[in-house]
Specification:
zinc ion binding; transferase; Aminopeptidase; 3 domains; six-stranded mixed sheet; histone acetyltransferase activity; five-stranded antiparallel sheet; single chain; EC 2.3.1.48
Length: 544
């Protein structure tokens, strides 16, 4: 049954894997109206409908109280990462996840077949001006872009007529986008694409699962870097394309074609596996790009600018693997060189702002790595693990040791995790397992970080700095780390003044144990080596 103009309907987002509507909670209910219809450029028999959002609703679920025993959870003091707006989902960074666009009929469910909504002029204008693709095609996978990306900025792209919808087809060899399957076919069989694998230098080669990492210089491979950036813009809300890719270096993660995830369809899984293992074998080595991360060159104490796992390859540990690689490369730069001009010595910082997906990933990753480092430190002979576990459970004031924040950061670095000091502070004040006990109840909780500090506050901070600037730890199955860290003047949304709060972080050993022996996880033994035994990512690449 076809849709008609003005038809009220509900948009089904439950089948969108890792879509913004499914971020941190139940699926949002999206209601809207059909404004018009168009034929697809590659398949004239395929009709798509333009959906205009009228309202977005999210089911209200019961949430455990966040205030208990004088503890204040930081989530109560700042905006949610992703909140429901009138016509979109709004992120804390000010970006909007909109649902307006072109959809197949299978995603639209009629609400009232008789009552039609008058189509307003601005809705129709928005439909006519919408030049975004309805989907992104990569190999045998189709996914809907979450944000608009200027694919037309590539001069060879011939945009279709406005009365037609189109899909962006990405070349599996060189990642170039095309507006039709016909153009992609001509690109492949006409001898125009000469890539057999990602350009650049092979840095990492997992012989067990086939996962690889390629280093791509944005200045030497401009087109490849631009294609990666345009693809990333379609799925990352905060990604900016203000500068060209020559100032970036890209680290591309690939998987063998034989390991492609199976998609239910006309082909059985055994047949799919057989076809995938030999797909385009004559002209392609079979390295499927599953994600990438980028880094700005010549920026000390910096390890990552942008990270993307393609939606069809998510939930497979690729993002955690890329973070491990990013920090390992940071360790190389700072151990082999450590210059203040390009490499630094204080760990690797990650560029702001964080998207909701990115922040959830980073907090989870940092939690695991900090737990690993502090568990190693707690195993030292100076800490009585038996007494610590008991005293922490019975009396929080009876702790095994007290160390300042700077020492905690040092322990994390010594544990082999090159997390920057600013990122560690961000973790301590934003993780869902971090709580803050108010030292002076009469003082109101600040909603945001103050722009400047008064003389009275500075005097109070100086008087209390030696008391509150500490981290208390225990080494039982649950670890409690109390923190009153002075980070005033930082860029965080919620910064408790050190004279007013002491924080506690709950860390669990199971966060570390669950990750052991996972196939495809990062392993130092798979770094590539030259004939001289040296790693190809060397000082020569740090300072070019």
């Amino acid at each position: 049954m076809t849709m008609c103009e003005g038809q009220k309907c509900r948009l089904d987002v439950s089948t969108w894997d890792s879509s913004p509507a499914r971020q941190s909670g139940p699926c949002a209910n999206v209601f809207g109206v059909v404004v018009g219809e168009r034929r697809h450029m590659d398949d004239p028999g395929r009709v798509l409908y333009y959906f205009h959002t009228l309202r977005v609703e999210r089911p209200v679920s019961s949430v455990a109280t966040e205030r208990s025993g004088g503890l204040v959870h930081p989530r109560r003091e700042r905006r949610e990462e992703l909140s429901v707006g009138t016509h979109a989902l709004n992120s804390a960074g000010g970006f909007k996840y909109t649902f307006d666009g072109w959809y197949d009929e299978i995603f639209l469910y009629k609400i009232d077949e008789k009552a039609l909504v008058p189509v307003q002029r601005e809705w129709r204008t928005a439909m006519e001006q919408d030049t975004s693709p309805c989907e992104v095609l990569y190999l045998c996978y189709a996914t809907r872009p979450w944000f608009q990306s200027p694919f037309a900025s590539l001069q060879y792209m011939q945009m279709p007529e406005r009365q037609l919808c189109y899909s962006v087809s990405v070349c599996h060899r060189c990642m170039s986008p095309f507006v039709s399957q016909r153009h992609l076919h001509e690109h492949l069989v006409g001898g125009y694409c000469r890539f057999r694998r990602p350009p650049g230098i092979l840095l990492y080669d997992d012989k067990d699962c086939g996962r690889r990492v390629y280093y791509v210089d944005g200045a030497k491979h401009l087109h490849y870097g631009r294609c990666l950036s345009l693809l990333g813009k379609a799925f990352i809300e905060s990604k900016q394309l203000g500068s060209d890719v020559d100032i970036y270096e890209f680290f591309v993660v690939t998987a063998p074609r034989a390991s492609l995830p199976y998609v239910l369809g006309e082909m059985e899984e055994t047949t799919f596996r057989r076809e995938a293992a030999s797909f385009d074998a004559a002209h392609w080595d079979g390295d499927v790009v599953v994600g990438y991360f980028s880094r700005i060159k010549h920026r000390p104490d910096h390890c990552l600018s942008c990270i993307l796992t393609l939606p069809m390859f998510q939930q497979k540990g690729v993002a955690v693997f890329m973070l491990d690689v990013a920090y390992a490369l940071t360790e190389m730069r700072q151990r082999l060189c450590g210059c203040e001009a390009a490499c630094g010595r204080r760990g690797g910082a990650i560029s702001r702002p964080f998207s909701p997906h990115g922040q959830a990933l980073l907090l989870s990753y940092w939690r695991r790595r900090v737990t690993e480092a502090l568990m190693q430190s707690a195993a030292s002979p100076s800490i009585d693990t038996e007494a610590t576990a008991t005293s922490a459970a019975e009396d929080d004031d009876n702790v095994a040791s007290t160390v300042p924040f700077s020492v905690v950061h040092e322990k994390v670095l010594l544990g082999g995790h090159y997390i920057h000091e600013d990122d560690l502070r961000f973790f301590l004040f934003h993780d869902e397992r971090c709580f803050y006990a108010r030292k002076t109840p009469a003082i109101a909780v600040p909603a945001t970080c103050p722009k400047r500090r008064t003389a009275a506050n500075e005097s109070t901070d100086n008087n209390n700095n030696n008391i509150n600037n500490n981290v208390s730890s225990s080494s039982g199955s649950n670890h409690y780390y109390n923190s009153g860290i002075d980070i005033a003047g930082g860029s965080l949304g919620f910064v408790p003044p050190p004279a007013e709060f002491i924080g506690s972080v709950l860390l669990f050993k199971r966060d570390v144990l669950q990750r052991e022996h996972q196939p495809g996880s990062f392993n130092q033994q798979f770094w590539c080596r030259g004939s001289d035994g040296c790693h190809p990512y060397s000082i020569a690449l740090f300072h070019y």
